[in-house]
Amino acid sequence: MRIECNGNDLGDAVAKVIKAVSARSTNPVLEGIKLTAEEGTLTLTATDLELSIEHMIRAKVVETGDAVVPGKLFGEFVKKLTAQNIVLTATNDRLKINYDRSEGEFGCYPVEQFPIVNRIDDTQYFVMKNADFRDLVNKVAFSVCTDDAHPTLKGVLMEISSADVTAVALDGYRLAKCVKPIVSTTAETSRVVPVRAIMEISRLVPDNDEEIRFYLHRNYLMVRINATTITTRLIDGDFVNYRQIVPQHFETQVYIPKTLFEEAIDRAVLLARTEKNNYLVRFDISQTNMTVRSHSDVGTLEENIPVKTDGADIYISFNARYFTEFLHYMSSDTIVLNLTNSTSACIISPVGGLDEYIYLVLPVRSI
């Protein structure tokens, strides 16, 4: 293999695919990036067998061929290159990289040991607008479970209908659900997508009204974003029946200015940040006021926020961290706390947006 390409193009390609390089594997070749030189293009591929990312750049191909280079080392090296012309030459188990008047050399893994990446074109698909997909991921992905004991909950449930896509993530203490319209689909189904994959896709998708098409085949999902192709293995197993978890009736609804609430929570977290009380904050809610209280060995806080309450007064306590992450992605000027009592789950939503986005959080023992 011998090719010439632009240094910035090569660096950008490596930065995209390296997210799929295996960090810890019993198979060393999974720590590599495969370079494939074909007519006019150089394709870089990385996979850990669960997530695969390919990116294609233009190149002058003098001799076609393949090489598998050490991913992290190669990535750190090409990151320091610029727009200058780069020449890559692979012979036997070595790759030479010539740039400017200099040269580097890398040992390579055996090409034949690199896994074949699944192709799932011309299968079932669904289409969304880019901005809708990014917003959907932002609003649910932070609630995914990180416990290996619950592998199904380490993904985002995506329920695809003819009209919309419903995404759900939960970790046992909180749940986030977001519904976005669909442009078109040939697949009305439910699949669990690994959170790592869905977040990588979201990072690559531009925030605009163009469309993105997701291909589904058996237990794989694939998407193309310009010159990048991402393929992920879907998570097997039954997702939790979240509809049984979400309350449908409430005794109290509290309307709160989002900005004032977020600022109060941020300050409360500073003073509640101790291992002993686990970011505990208490809300004392009356008809026109909510007092946010936190205390620890380092200090105390009592902050009053004007609210409008429909229903009975109530006091209830939460882990404040579950609010900071949620509020970061909430765009509404006013949010609604839907409550039953001090021991039942709280459902939070934007005003008038209960059907589009809800966030459920369980209370803790009151302070």
What does this structure look like?
The structure is a single chain. With 367 residues, the protein is of the alpha+beta class. Helix content is 17%, strand content 44%. It contains six helices and 27 strands. The protein has helices at 7-17, 71-78, 130-140, 195-204, 258-272, 321-328; strands at 2-6, 32-38, 41-47, 51-58, 60-63, 65-70, 85-91, 94-99, 102-107, 124-129, 155-160, 164-170, 174-181, 184-185, 190-194, 211-217, 220-225, 228-233, 252-257, 280-285, 289-296, 299-306, 308-311, 314-319, 334-339, 346-350, 357-361. The strands form four sheets. It has a nine-stranded antiparallel beta sheet with strand order 6-2-3-4-18-17-16-10-14. Strands 15-11-12-13-27-26-25-19-23 form a nine-stranded antiparallel beta sheet. A five-stranded antiparallel beta sheet has the order 5-1-7-8-9. The mean pLDDT is 92.
